[in-house]
Q: What sequence folds into this?
């Protein structure tokens, strides 16, 4: 299946060259350092696109953390803008500089926009996406966010494509609705690899690729963020001796039924029942 | 025009139907003429008197020009009407080689313009005012000099001054020796106030004259202009003109003020601010347009605008822009600054923020969110953990911390299970406590154990069964500071 998508991509590129339209560039991707993850995404997250990250509950720290880490990786040295609402400050807590620094996201290069409501937030997001000098944009929306409909998301996607600025739509406590996003992820915190003495270790994330515009979806990953080296780790202590097959992933829910080609890795000490619940 | 040495001269004004002398020059004073005398009497004594009409507006203008010129000595220059200037030279005198040298420089400069100057230096504005107008001769110190001043120096009302003299109180020192309550009862509160101010026991703020904006462009319309679009078009031309003038000086504007004057007397001021100096008319107009869009009441031309004014109250040095050939770093920075300006103007200054570290170990005081418009040099954030450590601080912080219900095995032990926002969390991993004590050295009276010093907090990094990581703390030491210490959640980790 993966091969067929690659063939398809090659064909698309060929047609584009015949038509004289610049081909969708393949090199403008952000590699995360996690080999299997990057391979599956043809080299990483596409830049100049919108990506959606869904967190199950509104006080989800993991989804916000992952969005910021990705934004930082994409932005490089350029400033990134984090748009939130006053309500988000109340429900999810203030953005905390020392914690961002500890995560490896330099707070000195983070601009924070705290908007009054979602309408103002989305307007600001479109404006920000038109500014090519911006490294990346994180848009944090809580709840259902009815204002972010297909039209609004299309507008954001077009602005992102025109300027090449990547937008990460952080959706906390909302349900996926049709959108123009390049990829859609479900993000949850994963039990970390404990420190000696059973202390919480490096930030770990459980990811599920819910949807992808150009390629297979449904894969799951567990990423561990190494805040010092600034990349996602494949095996910093995680034993990857166990490869789960379709049956494991299929039990998680109906939405992610197509798990073909998925590379799934879980630490051995984690009971399989925990995921099925 | 008046020149010294051409005979006595007086300035006259009309008081109650008669021309009376308002001010006189030294020659006229030497003849025994006094202010308040009628012009007819003065002419009778001295037929060759040169007479000028009083022009208070011209006086005021001249004084203001002198005051603006005094900015060379200190930014705190204020008018002291009718004939005086008050300069606050705290911290400026050493630049001129001392107070006396500075005063001499000022006096020389003014005397070159034919102005007779008297000056005095004192610790308070009132003291300097009085010493300048009532010379008392040499005195041991300022206090002694002030006490030798006549009571007129207090600037009381005529009746009060006469009454004080009748009572035998001739100098400020005499008055200061009397109890304040007696003075207040007889001559009113203002007499006591004036005395306190003069002797430096009270303080009245000085109102320095604001420097006029350097650049100001105006357009007047022969006919009131009913179209806002046309007004904005005109404003753009004005912005271009202001931009040219800024460029001549090598400056860019940080703040622009556009005022739309309506023919019925109303005026709409619009202010825009930028985080980097700007002199590009389209950029200025974009910000103005944002400002107009953000107005709750639209810009209403009514019967038309008859004047527009654009001023640049704040300008800063701006190097001529040059395209950066490699990297394009400068352009990129400019463009993000433009975005910040646009968002700040639309949403409000305080809504676009930049985080800055603060030197405090109290978690909620370790950062400050500042408006991103205020350009400051970038600061580097300390990273407190060592290589291989997970983040020790959360990415989200609750302010105020949110109370949670905690079950711990022992009262001063780590949490076992906690309940937050109606959900129960089983703690599977924890690290702690990290003990953070209150800043007792900042407590008002060194109150180490008291409530004001803040309770000690024991912070735990915990992870629940689903892998979510929280930062929670126990408020107060069990047994010592609090009987039943409360638990709070303070942050969320990634």
A:
């Amino acid at each position: 299946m993966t091969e067929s998508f690659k063939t398809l991509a090659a064909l698309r590129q060929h047609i584009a060259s015949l038509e004289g339209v610049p081909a969708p560039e393949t090199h403008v991707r952000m590699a995360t350092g996690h080999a299997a993850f990057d391979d599956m995404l043809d080299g990483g997250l596409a830049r100049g696109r919108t990506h959606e990250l869904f967190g199950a509950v509104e006080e989800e720290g993991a989804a916000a953390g992952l969005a910021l880490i990705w934004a930082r990786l994409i932005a490089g040295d350029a400033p990134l803008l984090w748009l939130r609402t006053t309500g988000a400050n109340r429900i999810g807590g203030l953005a905390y500089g020392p914690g961002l620094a500890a995560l490896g996201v330099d707070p000195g290069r983070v601009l924070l926009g705290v908007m009054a409501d979602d309408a103002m937030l989305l307007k600001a997001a479109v404006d920000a996406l038109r500014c090519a000098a911006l490294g990346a944009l994180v848009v944090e929306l809580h709840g259902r966010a009815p204002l972010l409909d297909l039209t609004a998301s299309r507008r954001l996607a077009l602005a992102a494509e025109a300027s090449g600025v990547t937008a990460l739509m952080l959706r906390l406590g909302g349900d996926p609705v049709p959108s123009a996003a390049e990829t859609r992820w479900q993000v949850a915190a994963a039990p970390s690899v404990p420190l000696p003495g059973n202390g919480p270790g490096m930030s770990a994330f459980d990811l599920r690729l819910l949807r992808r515009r150009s390629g297979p979806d449904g894969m799951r990953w567990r990423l561990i963020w190494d805040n010092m080296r600034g990349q996602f780790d494949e095996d910093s202590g995680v034993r990857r001796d166990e490869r789960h097959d379709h049956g494991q992933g299929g039990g998680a829910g109906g939405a992610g039924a197509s798990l073909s080609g998925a590379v799934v890795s879980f630490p051995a000490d984690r009971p399989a029942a925990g995921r099925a619940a | 025009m008046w020149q010294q040495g051409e005979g006595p001269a007086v300035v006259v004004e009309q008081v109650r139907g008669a021309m009376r002398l308002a001010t006189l020059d030294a020659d006229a004073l030497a003849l025994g003429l006094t202010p308040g005398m009628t012009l007819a009497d003065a002419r009778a004594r001295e037929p060759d008197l040169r007479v000028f009409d009083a022009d208070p507006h011209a006086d005021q203008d001249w004084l203001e020009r002198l005051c603006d010129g005094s900015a060379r000595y200190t930014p705190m220059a204020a008018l002291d009407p009718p004939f005086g200037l008050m300069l606050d030279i705290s911290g400026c005198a050493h630049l001129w080689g001392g107070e006396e040298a500075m005063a001499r420089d000022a006096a020389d400069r003014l005397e070159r313009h034919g102005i007779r100057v008297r000056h005095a230096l004192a610790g308070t504005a009132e003291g300097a005012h009085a010493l300048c107008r009532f010379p008392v001769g040499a005195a041991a110190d300022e206090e002694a000099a002030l006490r030798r001043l006549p009571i007129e120096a207090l600037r009381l009302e005529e009746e009060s001054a006469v009454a004080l003299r009748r009572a035998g109180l001739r100098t400020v020192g005499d008055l200061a020796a009397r109890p304040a309550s007696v003075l207040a009862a007889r001559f009113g509160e203002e007499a006591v106030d004036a005395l306190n101010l003069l002797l430096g026991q009270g303080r009245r703020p000085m109102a320095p004259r604001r420097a006029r904006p350097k650049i100001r462009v105006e357009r007047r319309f022969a006919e009131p202009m009913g179209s806002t679009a046309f007004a904005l078009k005109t404003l753009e031309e004005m912005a271009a003109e202001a931009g040219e003038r800024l460029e001549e000086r090598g400056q860019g504007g940080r703040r622009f003020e556009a005022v739309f004057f309506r023919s019925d007397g109303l005026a709409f001021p619009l202010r825009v601010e930028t985080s980097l100096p700007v002199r590009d008319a389209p950029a200025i107009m974009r910000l103005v347009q944002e400002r107009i869009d953000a107005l709750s009441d639209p810009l209403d031309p009514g019967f038309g605008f008859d004047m527009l004014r654009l001023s640049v109250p704040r300008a800063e040095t701006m190097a001529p822009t040059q395209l950066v050939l490699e990297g394009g770093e400068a352009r990129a920075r400019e463009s993000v600054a433009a975005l910040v300006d646009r968002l700040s103007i639309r949403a409000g200054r305080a809504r676009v923020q930049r985080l800055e570290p603060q030197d405090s170990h109290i978690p909620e005081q370790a950062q400050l969110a500042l408006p991103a418009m205020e350009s400051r040099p970038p600061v580097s954030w300390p990273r407190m953990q060592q290589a291989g450590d997970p983040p020790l601080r959360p990415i989200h912080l609750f302010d105020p911390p949110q109370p949670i219900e905690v079950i711990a095995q022992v009262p001063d032990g780590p949490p076992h299970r906690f309940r937050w926002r109606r959900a129960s969390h089983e703690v599977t991993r924890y690290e702690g406590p990290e003990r953070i004590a209150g800043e007792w050295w900042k407590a008002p009276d060194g109150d180490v154990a008291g409530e004001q010093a803040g309770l000690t907090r024991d912070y735990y990094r915990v992870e629940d069964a689903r892998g979510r990581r929280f930062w929670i703390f126990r408020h107060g030491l069990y047994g010592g500071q609090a009987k039943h210490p409360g638990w709070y959640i303070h942050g969320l980790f990634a």
